[in-house]
Write a structure and sequence with these properties.
With 508 residues, this protein is α+β, with helices and mostly antiparallel strands. The chain is built from 15 helices and 18 strands. It folds into three domains: 189 residues, FAD/NAD(P)-binding domain; 161 residues, D-Amino Acid Oxidase, subunit A, domain 2 (D-Amino Acid Oxidase, Chain A, domain 2); 95 residues, Helicase, Ruva Protein, domain 3 (Orthogonal Bundle), CATH 1.10.8. A hairpin with a 5-residue loop joins strand 9 and strand 10. About 3% of the residues have low confidence. Bound molecules: flavin-adenine dinucleotide (FAD).
């Protein structure tokens, strides 16, 4: 995936794109894979890095959504379970089965959750992972040694999928390029081009080199998550908001706070929220929150009350209780929720995702979840074919293996054998950094430390400690100079602020 070559294609005026996608998160990259694999000439432009916004800040679950069953949303759960099964098959190196325990602190809970989760298994049909089962108190504690034993009756064990969100995004970008797509990070769409009232292209600027591109395409798709309304306004002027962002944060702790490789799912906390404690890359992720009325920004920051809520709830369910000083990292993401009241006749709106076409033929795909990105992409491209009057070709992604998603990949194939560690507390080496630059379009220090490796998500202090060493390797590999390195330090510092505790809670 060579960015220089891709930018050359984007600036070539003879390129006539079938599909231009704005946004390189789960939604846009999914659409790029679908469109490129059907053979359409596909370009995708991402203003920051792939998955830099919401798509790298998820709970990292490929799941049906057990809690939707409670609301009776059987169709949504069935669709998500089907997509979970496909992802486990199409990217087995990036999406893996994960056992969860729902602890029972009331006598009837094992049977209540056991029957709900058996229905969950049944809805997955042939694409199920493994069967749900009852656990005694001692079996529950052997799965999760640090679970509070006082008042514990037992638990229900069930299975779902877990993944690395930013790495799946890179695998999708590579797959789209493999199929002929031109996919670029750090290229921002500034305006839409219109002819006779119809959107026929975009004007975009390379945020690194400063070059401006004017792309012409048969159909333009807005896949910008919480930024959806800013692109709708480029098209329609002052329109009301479609998206109501909701913030969710996670804190990252050492895995000893779980004590094992099984996740905990608390289906309903005292205030009715779902809470997950999940083993991930040798750490534990705890989340999430649901905070409305937040501004739309690329790097939202965790709020003090959100961190307090998670620490407080961890203390209620765990024997060894974490404190603020145990937090290794924290990250916040914005859910691109679609306001229900904006449902129009011309729009298709559902709890899972929202697809619409404006009067000037801009296609917008918003909402949904990481888990359902493939179905969202299929729906968006089917609609784009009608809007852009493209030759009809069937969707091929049901069984498409994602590049870098095979088992044992991605880094082994590109490793040059240089195993110098990035930091003793991080599971990365110099060859991972080189692969990120050479194969995965990691062009900024933050790209490499946040999304090609997940160093910042695992341990901010270790990531910060390693940053000068990594920057040195990058400067050499990219043949850059000291002023470039200085600008990287500045950009990295800005992003760093979103992974650390609010000032009042920082140790010092
Ligand atoms: C806390 C939290 C936990 C979650 N957990 C899960 C989970 O476990 N499982 C699950 O399935 N789902 C989960 N989700 C939902 C999932 O993460 C989102 O639905 C998904 O990531 C949204 O992807 P997106 O591509 O629509 O948006 P984004 O990831 O925000 O991507 C949109 C992109 O558009 C780019 N963009 C904006 N404007 C422009 C422009 N002018 N030019 C170029 N690019 C532009 C942005 O930079 C951004 O990268 C979670 C969400 C949150 C917030």
């Amino acid at each position: 995936m060579n960015r220089t070559e891709i930018l050359a294609r984007l600036s070539d005026p003879s390129e006539d794109w079938d599909v231009i996608i704005i946004g390189g998160g789960a939604t846009g990259l999914g659409i790029a894979v679908d469109a490129a694999s059907r053979g359409y000439r596909t370009a995708l432009l991402e203003q920051a890095d792939f998955a830099e916004s919401t798509s790298s800040k998820s709970t990292k679950l490929i799941h049906g959504g057990v809690r939707y069953l409670r609301g009776g949303e059987v169709g949504l759960v069935r669709e998500s379970l089907r997509e979970r099964g496909r992802l486990l098959r199409n990217a087995p190196g990036l999406v893996e089965p994960l056992p969860f325990v729902v602890p029972a602190y009331r006598w009837y809970e094992r049977f209540f959750y056991g029957s709900g989760l058996t229905l969950y298994d049944l809805l997955a049909g042939d694409l199920g992972v493994r069967s749900t089962g009852h656990l005694s108190q001692s079996e529950t504690l052997s799965q999760i040694p640090n679970l509070r034993s006082q008042g514990l009756y037992g638990g229900t064990l069930y299975w779902d999928g877990q993944f690395d969100d930013a790495r799946l995004a890179v695998a999708m970008a590579r797959t789209a390029v493999e199929h002929g797509g031109a996919v670029a990070n750090h290229v921002r769409v500034e305006e839409l081009v219109k002819e006779s009232g119809r959107v026929t292209g975009v004007v975009a600027t390379d945020q690194i080199g400063g070059e401006t591109f004017r792309l012409a395409g048969k159909v333009v798709i807005n896949a910008t998550g919480v930024f959806t309304d800013s692109v709708r306004r480029m098209d329609e002027g002052e329109v009301g908001d479609l998206i109501a962002p909701s913030q969710g944060i996670h804190i990252v702790l050492d895995q000893k706070f779980l004590g094992g490789d099984t996740a905990i799912m608390i289906p309903s906390t005292d205030d009715g929220r779902v809470l997950f404690a999940i083993p991930w890359k040798g750490k534990m992720l705890l989340g999430t929150t649901d905070t409305g009325d937040v501004p739309v920004e690329l790097h939202p920051r965790p709020l003090e009350e959100e961190v307090d809520y998670l620490i407080d709830h961890a203390g209620r369910y765990l024997a060894e209780k974490p404190t603020l000083s145990d937090i290794r990292s924290t990250f916040a993401g914005l859910r691109p929720l679609v306001k229900p009241s904006d449902s129009q006749q011309t729009s298709k709106i559902s709890r899972s995702h929202y697809l619409s076409v404006s009067d000037s033929a801009l296609v917008t795909m918003a909402g949904g979840k990481w888990t359902t990105y493939r179905q969202m992409a299929e729906d968006a491209v089917d609609r784009a074919i009608e809007v852009g009057e493209l030759e009809t070709r069937p969707c091929l992604t049901h069984d498409l293996t994602l590049l870098g998603g095979e088992k044992g990949s991605p880094d082994e194939s590109v490793s040059d054998g240089d195993v110098e560690p990035v930091d003793p507390d991080l599971p990365y080496t110099k060859s991972d950094i080189r692969a990120a630059i050479r194969e995965e379009m990691g062009v900024a220090l933050a790209d490499v430390l946040c999304r090609r490796t997940r160093a910042m998500f695992l341990d901010t202090e270790a990531a910060l400690r390693s940053s000068e060493k990594v920057l040195g390797w990058m400067t050499e590999e990219l043949k850059e100079d000291a002023s470039w390195a200085e600008s990287q330090r500045e950009d990295f510092k800005k992003e760093l602020a979103s992974y650390i505790l609010p000032t009042s809670q920082s140790p010092s």
